[in-house]
Amino acid sequence: MALKRYSYIKYPYSRNGWISFALSVISLLLTLYVFVVAIAGGGSTGPFHAACGFTAVVMSLMGMWFSFLTLTEKEKNYLFGLIGGGVSLILCIVWVVVIVNGSRV
Questions:
Q1: Chain-centre distance of CA 68, in angstroms?
Q2: Taking the CB of residue 56, how many other CB atoms lie within 10 A of it?
């Protein structure tokens, strides 16, 4: 008969996980904003919107970095770090596709 193990220790959420999650959410909102403005403007945007897009790319890269730092912490809950890292990775892929397709037009 196998013994069941119970653990009453709750691991706190990782601090870097929260940072990664926040950066990915802000990057997602900026990306959506830039895409909506670009679609509404027929593909032409100004320098402010280009700066918002660049900021979204940098924030998603930093979100992936903080997600990596989350996984190096011991005895922490990695949930928000993994969600933030996944969203940031998807946003980076989307931006690479948009930039490559935009340069061919």
A1: 12
A2: 24
